[in-house]
Amino acid sequence: MRVLETDRLFLRPLQASDASALFQLHCDPLVVRLTTDGQPMTRDQSDERLDLYLREARDFGLGFFAVFEKQPNGDLLFAGRCGLRSFKNDAVEIGYCFSERASGRGLATESAGLMIADAFGRLGCQKLVGLVRPANQQSQKVLRKLGFTQNGMICCRNVNYRSFERNNGETGRL
Q1: pLDDT, tens digit, for every residue of 70-102?
Q2: 4-167 architecture in CATH?
Q3: In this structure, what are the phi and psi dihedrals at residue 70, rounded to the nearest 5 degrees?
Q4: What gap in Å lies between CA 147 and CA 106, rounded to an integer?
Q5: pLDDT tens string 7-60
Q6: Contact 1/14 with Cβ under 8 angstroms?
Q7: Are 105 and 44 spatial neighbours (Cβ–Cβ below 8 Å)?
Q8: CA-CA distance, 70 to 8, in Å (whole number)?
Q9: Helix and strand numbers, DSSP H then E, in the chain
């Protein structure tokens, strides 16, 4: 199993045993407010989303990682998810989602930076896309810090998003 690490974070591919942690994340008040229409996912919806991520990882070689914050005693505390998905026109979508407890401390920027380096390095991607709901100012700020530029609005999966792009070779904080 491939893992990614920083001094603060440990990331490993999502697995079926992450279902409960992912469900808790999908019900987190901040996540519900910023990434859905104000309705938390049901357990079935959350499990379906996990199944989708696992299928995409198997079928496309792209996937989401569970992000854990390293604790001083050596424990790992689940903080959220971050990863890559196949998009259209040979682009790859980057996405991340963190609990309210984990927000506001740079964990999304740090983990997404690892994903960007992996996408442009090991995977040889040429373009990354980030889709963010208009009200989610925190995620827009993360993408801008990481060198993405806003490229208008897009409707994807029946939701309107602000679209951000970054091409391989463009700079940003990693």
Answers
A1: 999 999 999 999 999 988 777 899 999 999 999
A2: 3-Layer(aba) Sandwich (3.40)
A3: -70, 135
A4: 15
A5: 999 999 999 999 999 999 999 988 888 887 778 899 999 999 999 999 989 988
A6: no
A7: no
A8: 5
A9: 5, 8
Cα 171 to chain centroid distance, Å, stands at: 19
Q: Residue 164 has which token pair?
A: 């951000």
3-class DSSP string for 74-139: CCEEEEEEEEEEECCCCCEEEEEEECCCCCCCCHHHHHHHHHHHHHHCCCCCCEEEEEECCCCHHH
How many Cβ atoms are within 10 Å of 43's Cβ, its own excluded?
A: 13
Helix (H, G, I), strand (E, B) or coil at 167: strand
